[in-house]
Amino acid sequence: MTCERPYAFFLLLLIIPAIIFIIFKNRKNSFYVKQNFRVHKGFTGTTRIFNYRKFVFFRSFFLTLGWTMLVCAYAGIYWGTNLVPVQKTGTSVSFVFDISNSMLAEDGPKGMTRLKAASKYAELLLDKIEENNLGTPVSVVVAKGDGVTAIPLTEDYTSIRSLLNAMSPSLMTVPGTSLGKGITKAKNSFPSNYAYAGRIWVFTDGEETDGHLKSALIDNIQSGIPVTIVGFGQPEESKVLTGDGVTYINSALRENQIKDTISEAQNATINLKDHTPVKYINSLDRGSASSLLAQLKAIDGQVITYEAKPVSRYTTFLLLAIIFFILAYVFMELDITKFFKDTKKTSVLMVFTLFSIVFTFTGCSKNTAQILQGTYAFEQKQYGTAVSCYLEVVKDSAQNHDEKLLSYSLYDLGTAYAKLEEYEAALDKFSQISDSAPEAIKYAAAYNEGIILAKNGKYQEAQESFKKALAIDSSKIDAKINLEVSIQKAAAEKIQASQPQTKSTPTENQDNPVTDMQEAVFERIKEHDEGKWKNSEQTQSTSSAEDY
Asked: Three-state SS across 315-342?
């Protein structure tokens, strides 16, 4: 459990003076309190007596609970975690090596030991990563003892190759193999809020001594970090010398054991396994390396991963506050005597009220709640959280073929990306908005495209976007102003590009009207450059789609 604004709980101190005020007020009217009893016939027709003192107590009790829930909602209490989609700039990977003595069995390709085969395999993966210019940071973890990060995340593959060539059980004297602790160490090697999506590749024969693999896989699934276990060796057992230098044991590739452990971990996290895949591949299978490298490649220029985020309980506390205030209102305002006179009407009213509350608080779809949460995060300038919410809505609306909701969510997502200065992603989302989208959305998308392009100095393309926006709604002054300024900026760039040639070639006619006009435009741009530009943070007019 975490709390975003713990200082908010000081507001609970206001309950103390409120209670003191109620006590003194009721003492002052002690005679009224003692004499004022309410009598009515209940549902069964029997006479029941309600004491005013009880009304005061329950009213105060529910008001206190309602205020407490409001404070908790404002305090920003979180508990539990949930996986949310997050866009990353790239992918990083941690190599986890099993360096136990069982990896010295000589049943690898061409008589190599399993450990040597794993080192060569990893080295070939590094070559492909470097050859394809993927720019993937790589770390190396040794799975022995509590696990050791031998090389932190780096793009210096030379140092990694040096370690791979020296990989041996003698690197660590700690006995036993703990694949689970090695995976946990690899998970912790990724910094928090890291710009790269993390993945873990484990090179092992499946022999372990502590049985921590399952719990480590569950932890990674819940944290949104995919794990791929790469098996080395043969299923037939081979004799291997243990660490004491005397005893021999039988060792083999425990492929079925690894698959069973993965299946158990996925069953324990059945609702998350689609977001965080955990796989097993045999290193000798055809295309095994290609399947690993495919995990590092971006899809459509984007890397979407899932991260564990704490679940906000804001809506829960807000709902409880509303319920308690309604109950307090019932005890404060309703005349209990009249309320219970007509049993039939009372029953109908209570059923109607119950269904109204249920419909009000359960009628919102999941996507509506996600949009509201994303909008709230956007207003709080928590743009990363807003992106996560909008990504979920985009995914659901695309699957459900809800074109209208998809248009709104794409625009919201593009705007959030623009705030994060991820302009390429923002332009991509704006371009995906269909022609059947509402006019306000199409205008706002085209207008913001122009703003982004202008910020990046692409004034010619910005002109086209502003023209597109004005074609949708020609009454927008902002688009007209920015179109004019983008034209001036483009003209100024042409002047600056031709200026060196103009200086080196003297001209006799200094009163050339074209040159004078260009100079006038250039001076005007210099004077009014800062004041003219409108950015996406400016308050939109009532017809703008900024609020969607």
From this structure: HHHHHHHHHHHHHHHHHHHCCHHHHCCC
Residue 362: partners with Cβ closer than 8 Å, 6 or more residues away: none
Q: Write the pLDDT tens digit of every residue in 64-115.
A: 999 999 999 889 888 776 666 666 778 899 999 998 888 889 888 888 999 9
State how far the Cα of 437 lies from the Cα of 439, in Å rounded to an integer: 6
At 364, list the tokens. Answer: 């919102």
Overall size of the chain counted in residues? 548
Please name the amino acid found at residue 212: H
The span from the CA of 167 to the CA of 179, in Å, is 16
Which pLDDT tens digit goes with each residue over 315-356? 889 889 998 888 887 765 554 445 445 555 555 555 555 555
- What values do phi and psi take at 140, rounded to 5? -125, 125
Q: How far apart are CA 283 and CA 102, in angstroms?
A: 17
The total of other beta-carbon atoms located within 10 Å of residue 250's CB is 11
Query: CA dihedral defined by 64, 70, 72, 78, rounded to 10 degrees?
Result: 140
Q: How many helices (H) and strands (E) does the chain have?
A: 20, 13
Query: Does pTM surpass 0.70?
Result: no
User: Would you place residue 261 in the very low, low, confident or very high pLDDT band (cuts 50, 70, 90)?
Assistant: very high
